[in-house]
Amino acid sequence: MSGGRFVTLEGIEGAGKSTIAKFALAWLTRRGIPGRLTREPGGTPLAERVRQIVLERGAETLSPVAETLLMFAARELHLKNVIRPALERGEWVICDRFTDATRAYQGSGRGVDAQLIETLAAAVHPDLAPDCTLLLDLPVPLGLGRARAREAGAADRFEAETVAFFERVRAGYLELARRDPQRFQVLDAAAPLAAVEERVERALEALA
Ligand code: Z5A
Questions:
Q1: Which H or E run contains 205?
Q2: Ligand 1: does its nearest atom lie under 6 Å from the Cβ of 112?
Q3: Where are the alpha helices (DSSP H) in 79-162?
Q4: Percent of the chain clearing pLDDT 90 (strictly above)
Q5: Which spans in 15-139 are helix H?
Q6: Is pLDDT of 26 > 70?
Q7: Above 80 in pLDDT, residue 153?
């Protein structure tokens, strides 16, 4: 195979996605493969502004449906301005979160209707799905512990969520992976970083 690949990283907070995203980009560079790292919500100037809206804890209530619509608005901007052009140029796109995050966080976590999420996904990217999704899975207390050890400053709207919320998100992700084993690779993110990186390297090799 040659040409662009679309690789997404998923998992609960503190799973190690940002760490692994940088590792994946370094792997691509070593192999001489053109690649770019990006993230959701965000990845373009306007989509980063949407990110601020969904993460900040303001006085106004952001309903789960409004949150879902904002995630897809940011995703549409990101696809149009960054992801699709890069794939068309033959680059690999390593994306820290994508639509599976909406399924897990807004769907399983917040209880938004799965059919609404699939309708929006079909409208925004009817012809595009990740070639591979690396799900970094770990127990919720471990992920939250890592994230909280690292963070300074006030918690954002997601960081302020309960353990029960993140347990629903984790279960949602595992169910998505169970239903689509061809696309998902579930990695034990509680393992030492070197072991996680070795699994990621094998997954990327298989795509190259
Ligand atoms: N969200 C949503 O609800 N719906 C959507 O559709 C989308 C997103 C797209 C974005 O937050 C929020 O948006 C997210 C879901 C929601 N909120 N939550 N939760 P974000 O992108 O800013 O935050 P995050 O995705 O949760 O990332 P994070 O907290 O930065 O975690 P991470 O990137 O997975 O982890 P990390 O920064 O790479 O690692 C955390 C620490 O653990 C760090 O100190 C590492 O050095 C360490 N680490 C990593 N791996 C290991 C291993 N294997 N062993 C030991 N230590 C490790």
A1: helix 193-207
A2: no
A3: 84-88, 99-101, 114-124, 140-150
A4: 91
A5: 17-30, 45-55, 64-78, 84-88, 99-101, 114-124
A6: yes
A7: no
The whole-number average pLDDT for the span 9-28 is 97
Domain annotation for the chain: domains and CATH numbers: 6-207 (3.40.50.300)
Contact 193 CB / ligand 1 (< 6 Å):
yes
pLDDT for residue 16 is more than 90: yes
Other beta carbons within 10 angstroms of residue 200's beta carbon come to: 22
Residues in Cβ contact with 26 at an 8 Å cutoff, skipping those fewer than 6 apart: none
Residue carrying structure tokens 């994306």? 95
Mutation probe of ligand 1 site: the residue of 97, 136, 161, 170 with most atoms within 8 A of C-beta: 97
Give me the pLDDT at residue 103, please.
98
Tokens 């994230």 appear where? 147
- Ligand 1 centroid–CA 2 distance in Å is 30
Angle at 28 between CA 27 and CA 34, to 5 degrees: 165
pLDDT at 2 over 70: no
